[in-house]
Write a structure and sequence with these properties.
The chain is built from 26 helices and 33 strands. By secondary structure, the protein is α/β, with parallel strands linked by helices. The strands form seven sheets. The chain has a 17-stranded parallel beta sheet.
Length: 893
C-alpha cells in the first residue's frame, strides 16, 4: 500500500529530524511535530481500518510525499549551503500549507472512522514538539532551570486548596515551555494530580480549537463526544467541565497571546477546593496576571555565562567533556548567545556539524548572530507582530542606539516626543511624558525591552535591548523603511529617502563631510551621531535637511553651536556640546528639548556627564542662557550639564513657558514673582548656588507642579539665610551643602506630604544629632544620608512609617542605626559602606533581630564603593532577572 509506505517513511523522517533540529525555528519544529502526529494518526487508521481507507489512498500518499520532500529538501540545502545563506521563510510557509492539508484530511478521516476513543489526535503528546525550544541535556534535565522547577513545583503542590493560576513569563526562546514541560512531566506532579491536560494555544487561536484540544487530551472524543457535538461550543464546555469536576487537575495553557483565551475557557475549570492548578506561559506580563491579579508571575531569567557554557557542552558533546583547546572559544561562543537558551541550542547544533578544532570554532565565534539570527527571527517576530500599532515605532526607534547601550529612559521618551510618536488624547490628564512612560512599561511587559535600572519611585531609569532583539529591531526597522542604522565609517550608496538615520560605531570616530555625500534624503527627520569624536565646525549639509526634527552630535571639539543649526525651523530636539548659546537659538521656535554638554565631559569617557560633580565647576565662569530663551514657548526640557545663569525675563508681555517641565542646572537664580509666572508648570528643577546672597527660596512653595528638586550649595551658601519653603507636591528632594539644621529637616522637609525620596549629601545638614518626630515623613520610601558629622540619630518606626530603603554612606561618626528602623514593616534594604565597621555590625544585628521574629524580607548590603547605588531597590541587571534579596546572607559589593 503506497499510502502506508509513504506515511511510515514520513513518521521516521519527522522523528529522525532530531539530528538537525537546531537548524529549525520553533515555528518549524511545531509544524513538523504536528505533521508527525497527523502521520501517526493516519498510519494507525490505515492499520486498523484498511477497508475504509481506499478512497484516501492517493491523497494520503501524495500528501505524505509532499511533506517529506519539503523537510528533506530543506535539510539538504542546509548541509549544502550552510545555515547563514538560507532563509527559512519559504520553508515555514510550505510547512504551514502542508500542515493545513493534513488537518483537513485528518478531519475527513475522523468522520469516516467508527466511534471509538482509542484513536484520536493527542494534543498532549503533539504539544511536546513545542518543548524542543528549550535546552535539555542528554539525561533530560533542563540546564539552568533547577531553581525555577523547584519554585513552580512548590506553587503547584502548595497548601492552598483553591484553584490557582501559576503564570510563567518571559521573552521568546527563553525557556518558558521547557520549564512548564519539565514540571508537567515530573513524577511528583504526575502523582499529585488526577488528570493533566496540555494545550498549546499559540497565535492561531480559536475557542473551538482550544475546547477540542481539551476534549481530545482528556480522551473524550469518540464514545463521549459525537461529531455533531464537536461543533457545538456550549456542549464542549459542558463536557470538559463535567470531566474535571471533582478531580484534582493540572491544566497547562502554553503560549497564550490574548486575554480572550482566558475569558473563553475560564468557565470550564471548576474550583472544587481540592488544590487544582492552571499553569500559563506567555510573553506578555499584563496577560500573565489577567486571570488572577494576586497571583505573582514567575519571570524567566536569562542564563548566566556558566549555565550557557554547560548547556552548549551538553548539546555538542555526548559525554559533556570538552577538549581543553576548545574551552576558551566555546565559552566565548556561549557568552555571545546573550543568555538565551534557544540561541545556545541553535548554535550548538551548528557546532555539532563542524570539525571540533579551534579554527572552525573561532570562525563560528565571529558569526554567532548570523547563524542563530534567522531561526530566532521567526520566534521573536511574533512579539513584534502582536504589538499594538502605537508601540511599534517606539520599539523600532530603539534600533538607533548602540549595542549593549544603557539607554536613558528619559532621553528615549524625549526622542519619542520629538519624533511625533505620541498623540495626546483629548481630555487626558496625563502629560505626554507620562503617556510615554506607560508606552515604555508596555514594551517591558511584552519582554521586548529589558529594564537595567529603576528609579527610587519604581519608574524606569535605564533600559536596553537584548542583542538578538536589537538585531530583530534593526531588521524590522530596515524592512519597513522606518530608519537606517549606519555602523561603518563610509556611508553606503543606497541611502535614499530615509526618515531616521543613526551613525553608530563601537569606537569613537571623526565625522567628515563625506559621511553625508552619499545620502539623498531630504525627508530626514532624525540624525543621531553616537560615539562621535569630532564634528565639523560648519556642517553645510544640514541645509539639505530642512525638515529635521532631531539632531544630536556630541563631540569634543565643539565650542559653539554651528549657525546652520539655527536654520532648522522644525527642530524639536537638539543635543550638542558647546560652551556658548547664542541668541539665535530663538529661531528654533519648535524646539522642545535642549541638551548642552560642556566639551570637557566628552573625553575620555563619552557621555559621562552624570559623573560630573558640580562642586568642581569654575565659580568665575559666566555661562549664561540668552534672554531670548523666554521667547521659545514649545520648550519642555532644558538640560544644562554645567550651571548656567538664567536671565530675568523681560518686562514685556511675553507669554509664560507653560510647557517647560525640566530646568536644570541654573546658577544663582534669585526668585521673584515674574520668574514664577514664566515657569508655572515646571516639574523638575536643578539649582546651583555659589553665593551667600539672599535668593528668596521661600518662593519655591508657589511652584505647585514641582515634583523633583535638586539644590547644590557651595562657597558661602547657607540655608539659614534662605528661609526655605518647599511645595507640597514635591516627591523627590536632593540637598547638597548649605548646612540646614537637623531640626529644620524634621520640621520643614518632614512635613511634606508627598515626599518619597530624600537625599542629603555633603554638608546639607548641620549638627551632630537628628531626632525625628511622630507624623513626619508620611510617605518617604528612600532615604540617603551622606553627612560626615552626624553622630546620633534618634527615631522610632512610626516616624518613618513607609521607608523601604535606607542608604548610609560617609557617616564615620554614626555608631549605630536606631533599633526602630529595623521595626519598620515596609523596610526592604539597608545599605552601608564598608568603612564604618560599627554601622555594618549594627545593620547585621538589625537583620538578625528581624529574622528572629520571622521577618526574612530585610536585606543588608555592604558596598565597597563611595558611589551611591541609587537604584538599590529596583535594579535589574542586563540579561538577568531582577534579583531577589537573599534573606540568608549579607551582600558584599
Amino acid at each position: 500500500m503506497a499510502a502506508y509506505a509513504a506515511l511510515a517513511s514520513l513518521v521516521q523522517t519527522t522523528v529522525n529530524r532530531n539530528h538537525s533540529k537546531s537548524h529549525f525555528s520553533t515555528y518549524a519544529k511545531e509544524k513538523i511535530g504536528s505533521i508527525h502526529e497527523y502521520a501517526v494518526f493516519l498510519l494507525t487508521f490505515l492499520e486498523y481500518y484498511p477497508e475504509r481507507a481506499s478512497r484516501w489512498e492517493g491523497k494520503l500518499r501524495d500528501l505524505a510525499h509532499e511533506a517529506e520532500d519539503i523537510i528533506e529538501e530543506f535539510t539538504w540545502r542546509l548541509s549544502f549551503y550552510g545555515r547563514v545563506k538560507i532563509s527559512s521563510f519559504k520553508f515555514e510557509e510550505e510547512l504551514r500549507n502542508v500542515t493545513e492539508k493534513f488537518g483537513l484530511i485528518a478531519g475527513d478521516v475522523m468522520d469516516e472512522r467508527p466511534a471509538y476513543s482509542s484513536l484520536s489526535l493527542s494534543s498532549s503528546s503533539s504539544s511536546s514538539s513545542a518543548s524542543s525550544r528549550v535546552a535539555v541535556t542528554g539525561n533530560g534535565v533542563a540546564i539552568g532551570l533547577k531553581e525555577d522547577v523547584m519554585a513552580i513545583k512548590d506553587r503547584l503542590c502548595g497548601l492552598s486548596s483553591k484553584l490557582e493560576v501559576v503564570p510563567i513569563v518571559g521573552m521568546g526562546g527563553i525557556g518558558k515551555t521547557t520549564l512548564a514541560r519539565t514540571v508537567y512531566d515530573d513524577s511528583v506532579i504526575m502523582y499529585r494530580f488526577d488528570i493533566r491536560v496540555w494545550l498549546t494555544i499559540s497565535q492561531d487561536y480559536s475557542e473551538q480549537k482550544v475546547l477540542l484540544g481539551l476534549v481530545d487530551s482528556m480522551k473524550l472524543i469518540g464514545e463521549h463526544v459525537s461529531t455533531i457535538e464537536m461543533n457545538d461550543i456550549s456542549t464542549l464546555k459542558e463536557k470538559v467541565y463535567k470531566n474535571l469536576k471533582g478531580r484534582r487537575y493540572l491544566a497547562v495553557m502554553d503560549d497564550v497571546w490574548s486575554t480572550k483565551v482566558w475569558d473563553d475557557v475560564r468557565i470550564v475549570f471548576p474550583d472544587d477546593g481540592n488544590g487544582s492548578r492552571i499553569m500559563l506561559t506567555t510573553r506578555v506580563a499584563d496577560l500573565a496576571v489577567y486571570p488572577d491579579s494576586s497571583s505573582a508571575s514567575h519571570e524567566m531569567r536569562f542564563m548566566n555565562d556558566s549555565q550557557s557554557w554547560d548547556l552548549l557542552k551538553g548539546k555538542v558533546f555526548e559525554d559533556r567533556n570538552c577538549p581543553p583547546e576548545l574551552e576558551d572559544v566555546g565559552k566565548r561562543i556561549a557568552r555571545s548567545c546573550g543568555g538565551l537558551p534557544l540561541a545556545v541550542v541553535l548554535v550548538a547544533g551548528f557546532l555539532s556539524g563542524v570539525d571540533k578544532i579551534p579554527s572552525s570554532w573561532e570562525e563560528i565565534s565571529k558569526n554567532v548572530n548570523p547563524i542563530v539570527g534567522p531561526e530566532l527571527e521567526g520566534i521573536l517576530s511574533l512579539s513584534y507582530t502582536y504589538l499594538s500599532h502605537h508601540l511599534r515605532p517606539c520599539f523600532l526607534f530603539m534600533a538607533m542606539f548602540l549595542e549593549d547601550e544603557n539607554i536613558s529612559a528619559s532621553k528615549l521618551i524625549r526622542l519619542w516626543l520629538a519624533s511625533g510618536f505620541l498623540k495626546h488624547q483629548n481630555g487626558c490628564s496625563k502629560s505626554l511624558e507620562e503617556e510615554a512612560e506607560e508606552y515604555l512599561e508596555d514594551l517591558v511587559k511584552r519582554n521586548l525591552v529589558i529594564v537595567t535600572s529603576r528609579k527610587s519611585d519604581g519608574k524606569i531609569k535605564c533600559c536596553s535591548l537584548h542583542d538578538m532583539v536589537r538585531d530583530l529591531c534593526i531588521k524590522k526597522a530596515h524592512d519597513e523603511r522606518f530608519l537606517c542604522v549606519l555602523s561603518d565609517s563610509v556611508v553606503r550608496q543606497d541611502v535614499t529617502n530615509e526618515r531616521h538615520i543613526s551613525f553608530i560605531n563601537e569606537q569613537h570616530f571623526t565625522f567628515g563631510q563625506s559621511h553625508m555625500n552619499n545620502i539623498w534624503a531630504p525627508t530626514i527627520r532624525t540624525i543621531l551621531y553616537l560615539n562621535l569624536l569630532n564634528f565639523p565646525y560648519a556642517p553645510s549639509f544640514l541645509r539639505c535637511y530642512k525638515l529635521l526634527r532631531i539632531f544630536e552630535a556630541m563631540s569634543e571639539n565643539s565650542i559653539s553651536i554651528p549657525s546652520e543649526v539655527f536654520e532648522l525651523f522644525h527642530l524639536r530636539y537638539l543635543a550638542l556640546t558647546c560652551s556658548f548659546i547664542p541668541s539665535a537659538i530663538c529661531n528654533l521656535m519648535n524646539l522642545q528639548t535642549l541638551t548642552i554638554l560642556p566639551t570637557s565631559l566628552i573625553a575620555p569617557t563619552f557621555y559621562s556627564w552624570k559623573r560630573y560633580w558640580l562642586s568642581d565647576c569654575d565659580p568665575s565662569s559666566h555661562l549664561s542662557l540668552p534672554l531670548e530663551i523666554w521667547r521659545m514657548p514649545q520648550l519642555r526640557h532644558i538640560l544644562l550639564c554645567q550651571p548656567y545663569t538664567l536671565p530675568h525675563p523681560p518686562n514685556d508681555s511675553n507669554p509664560p513657558l507653560e510647557n517647560l517641565h525640566t530646568l536644570s542646572y541654573i546658577k544663582n537664580l534669585v526668585w521673584n514673582e515674574n520668574i514664577l509666572k514664566m515657569i508655572p508648570n515646571v516639574k523638575r528643577l536643578g539649582l546651583v548656588y555659589m553665593t551667600s546672597t539672599e535668593s528668596h527660596l521661600n518662593l519655591l512653595k508657589h511652584l505647585d507642579q514641582l515634583e523633583k528638586l535638586k539644590v547644590h550649595g557651595y562657597r558661602g551658601f547657607s540655608w539659614q539665610r534662605q528661609n526655605p519653603n518647599f511645595p507640597s507636591t514635591l516627591k523627590k528632594l536632593t540637598l547638597v551643602g548649605g548646612k540646614l539644621p537637623w531640626e529644620d529637616i524634621t520640621r520643614i522637609i518632614g512635613s511634606l506630604p508627598n515626599l518619597q525620596m530624600l537625599k542629603l549629601r555633603g554638608h546639607a545638614c548641620w549638627g551632630e544629632t537628628w531626632e525625628t518626630v511622630d507624623g513626619g515623613f508620611p510617605n518617604l520610601e528612600y532615604l540617603l544620608i551622606e553627612i560626615f558629622k552626624l553622630q546620633h540619630w534618634i527615631t522610632e518606626r512610626s516616624h518613618l512609617p513607609r521607608l523601604k530603603c535606607l542608604v548610609l554612606h560617609s557617616c564615620p561618626m554614626l555608631r549605630e542605626i536606631p533599633e526602630g528602623i529595623g521595626q519598620i514593616s515596609t523596610l526592604e534594604l539597608i545599605e552601608v559602606d564598608h568603612h564604618n565597621i560599627s554601622l555594618v555590625e549594627s545593620a547585621k544585628q538589625i537583620k538578625e533581630d528581624q529574622e528572629s521574629y520571622g521577618n526574612y524580607g530585610l536585606h543588608v548590603c555592604v558596598t565597597h564603593s563611595h558611589e551611591i547605588r541609587r537604584n538599590s531597590l529596583h535594579t535589574s541587571r542586563k540579561r538577568a532577572r531582577p534579583s531577589q534579596y537573599d534573606a540568608g546572607s549579607v551582600e558584599e559589593r
